[in-house]
C-alpha cells in the first residue's frame, strides 16, 4: 500500500511570518521512488481561477520503498492566509513521489496572529443609475 | 463567507466530469473512429463541450496518441502559430473552433491535414461531422448539484435551470452566489 505522510512538529497548524516550519516526512511505497519532493506553496480557491505559487521545495533522493526524512523551512513574510466571499488563500506543504502522481498535502495558516484573516463583506456603494427625477433602486 | 468553504468554488466545479446522456463513452469513441477521428462536439454554451473534449483526451492519450490543444474564446480569439509536421500520431483538440470563422477554419483544416485527428467544439453544426450534441436538462443539473452540495436539494432547480437558459456553467456560478449569501448570513 502506498502511503505518504507529512508531520509538522508539535502538530502546529498556524505560523507567524518568517518563523520556522519543521517536521518529518514518511513514505511507504510499493515500488522504490526515484525521489521525493516536498513543496512549500500557497494557492487560491474561490469563484475564479486557482492561482498557485511555489515558494520553495526540497528534494529527497532516497530510492528506499520506506523511509523518513526531516525538513525545515523558514517561512516568508507574506502573503497571509485569508478568506473572503470570492477568494481564499491557503498555505500548504505538498509531498510528491517521483515518478508518478502520488501526493499528499497538509495546510497551515500563515498570519501575524496565527489566525486566518477574514475579509469583511463590502457593501456595494456604487450610485444607482438615475433618469431625470426617477431613481432606480 | 469563506470562499474556501463554498461547494461551488472553481476547483470543485472542475472536478465535475462529462455525464453521457443516452450514450456511453465507448459508443462515442467508436463513432469517432468511424468518422476518421475528425469530428465536432456541438452544443450550446455551458452544456459540457469543453469538459467532454478534456475527457476524450484521456481516452486518446491512453492509445499512445500525442495531443495538441488549441483554445479560442471571445476574449482571446487569436490562434497561435500552427506548428508544421503533424503526423498520424498527432490528435488536435480545438475548443471554440467556430471563433475562427468558417473560411479561416477551412484554412486551419488544410494546414493540419497530416494530423491523425481533429476534434473540435462548436455551437453550431457544419464545421465537421457531428460526433455528439451536448444537451442539458433540469435533471442533469440536479444530478450535478447533488454531487457537489448536499444542501442543494432545497434549491428550486427548474427555476435555476430556466433562468440560466440551460447554461449549467452559469447556473453553478449563480449557486456560488446563493451559497456565499447563506454562508455569510450564518456567520
What does this structure look like?
The complex is a heterodimer of chains A (137) and B (187). With 137 residues, chain A is mainly beta. Chain A has strands spanning 3-8, 14-15, 20-28, 35-46, 52-60, 66-74, 82-83, 87-98, 103-110, 117-118, 130-131, 134-135. Chain A contains no helices and twelve strands. In chain A, the strands form three sheets. In chain A, strands 2, 4, 5, 7, 8, 9 and 10 form a seven-stranded mixed beta sheet that branches. A three-stranded antiparallel beta sheet of chain A has the order 1-3-6, with no helix packed on it. In chain A, a hairpin with a 2-residue loop joins strand 11 and strand 12. Mean pLDDT of chain A is 90; it is low at 131-137. The longest helix of chain B is centred in the C-terminal third of the chain and has 19 residues, at 168-186. Chain B is elongated. The mean pLDDT of chain B is 92.
Condensed summary:
The complex is a heterodimer of chains A (137) and B (187). Chain A is mainly beta and 137 residues long.
